[in-house]
């Protein structure tokens, strides 16, 4: 039996966030009609990031989608209000479209900044 190739090395890294912010969500668990996601935010330098192209997230934490659809954050650092609002809306859309508790394993979205 042959060993499968390492596909992780074949996947391109995301482009550096030069402005706005990139939100990455990874499903931790889904049960009881709700879900828990690891959330990582990569914020462009014009929005308060430490450095452009830095691979470490500028902020990270956990987002909980309750069975009622309410979203609660546990974030290690303050993020801009527009980014928190964008992520909350994204998670509410995810909750509405999750059929039978089948939440997406990963999501990545970019937003160009505050309106």
Mean pLDDT: 80
The string of secondary-structure elements, in order, is EEEEHE
Q: What topology, given as strand order, has the largest sheet?
A: 4-3-2-1-5
Given the structure, what is the number of helices?
Answer: 1
- Assembly context of the chains: single chain
- How helix-rich are the residues, as a percent range? 10-25%
Mind telling me the C-alpha Rg? 16 Å
Q: Regions with pLDDT < 50 over 5+ consecutive residues? A: none
Query: What global shape is seen?
Result: elongated
Given helix and strand content, the structural type is alpha+beta
Which sheet architecture does the biggest sheet show? 5 strands, antiparallel
How many domains? The number is 1
Question: In percent, how much strand structure appears in the residues?
Answer: 25-35%
Number of strands: 5
The N- and C-terminal alpha carbons lie at a distance of: 55 Å
Description:
Helix content is 15%, strand content 34%. The chain is an alpha+beta fold. The protein has one domain. Strands 4-3-2-1-5 form a five-stranded antiparallel β-sheet, with helices on one face. The longest helix has 17 residues, at 81-97. The termini are far apart. The mean pLDDT is 80.
Topology of this structure?
Layout: E1 21-31, E2 34-43, E3 59-65, E4 71-75, H1 81-97, E5 106-111
Antiparallel strand pairs: 1-2, 1-5, 2-3, 3-4
């Amino acid at each position: 039996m042959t060993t499968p190739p390492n596909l992780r090395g074949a996947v391109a890294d995301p482009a550096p966030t030069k402005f706005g912010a990139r939100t990455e969500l990874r499903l931790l668990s889904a049960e009881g009609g709700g879900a828990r996601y690891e959330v990582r935010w990569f914020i462009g330098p014009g929005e308060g990031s430490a450095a452009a192209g830095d691979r470490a997230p500028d902020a990270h934490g956990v987002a909980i989608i309750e069975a009622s659809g309410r979203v609660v954050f546990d974030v290690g650092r303050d993020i801009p209000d527009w980014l928190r609002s964008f992520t909350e809306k994204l998670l509410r859309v995810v909750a509405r479209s999750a059929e039978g508790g089948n939440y997406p394993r990963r999501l990545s979205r970019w937003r160009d900044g505050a309106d």
